[in-house]
Amino acid sequence: MPRFVLIYLAMLAAVASFSSGDAFGATSEAQANAQSFLNKAAEEHQIEISLGQLAAQRATNERVEEFGQQMVDDHKKAGQQVEQLAMKDGVQLSAGVNQEHKQRVNELSQLAGHAFDRAYMNYILQNHETTVEEFQREGKTVQDQDIKQWIASIVPILEAHREKARQVKYSLQTNP
After folding, report:
1. H-type helices in the chain, by residue range?
2. Which of 43, 37, 49, 67 has the alpha carbon at shortest distance from 141?
3. How far from 30 is each of 1, 35, 41, 144, 148, CA to CA, in Å?
4. Which of 63, 86, 125, 173 could form a disulfide with 165 if both were Cys (CB 3.0 to 4.6 A apart)?
5. Of 114, 128, 118, 111, nearest in space to 47 by CA
6. What confidence tens digit (pLDDT) does each residue in 4-42 have?
């Protein structure tokens, strides 16, 4: 009988050890996902700021110029919120933007006039389509409640940007 008890206790210890390992692994994975999302969000806001500044300087259409300035203002605020979330969670954000985004800024900086206005609005509309979908998807899966609340607060702003981008893009097509 004592041998049976020892085997039973050894099995319980193994199960407890395995279970806590899974919980630790899940926590590490959740942290990694949160870090990855916060880095992506920070980069998205940075590119919107850079391109918005470019639009505020280069746009020939007043609506595009105003929209660019709104992107700068709104995304600076959102970027600060991401930085606060990252600091709270001990996440080190990557500096700068990826090569693809650098290339996009470079391409747009080569354009002028109506060509710039159209290209900028096309990019912003496409980017916000993707970003809204990604943020909505992340909002359903992220485990950190602060990040989840932030996503819930930022998605309506991104949707408003997307809608305004559609309107401005349409106005460019009807009033070249």
Report:
1. 2-58, 62-89, 99-109, 113-141, 145-174
2. 37
3. 43, 9, 16, 8, 13
4. 125
5. 128
6. 434 444 444 444 433 344 444 445 676 777 788 888 889
- How many C-beta atoms surround the C-beta of residue 88 within 10 A? 11
Contacts of 144 (CB under 8 A, 6+ apart): 30, 34, 89
Q: Distance from CA of residue 31 to its chain's centroid? A: 16
**How far is C-alpha 40 from the geometric centre of its chain's CA atoms?**
5
Domains delineated in the chain: 34-174 (1.20.1260.10)
pTM beyond 0.85: the answer is no
Assess contact for 148 and 41: CB atoms under 8 A.
Answer: no
Cβ atoms of residues 79 and 42 within 8 Å: yes
Both structure tokens of 130: 């993707």
8-state DSSP, 96: S
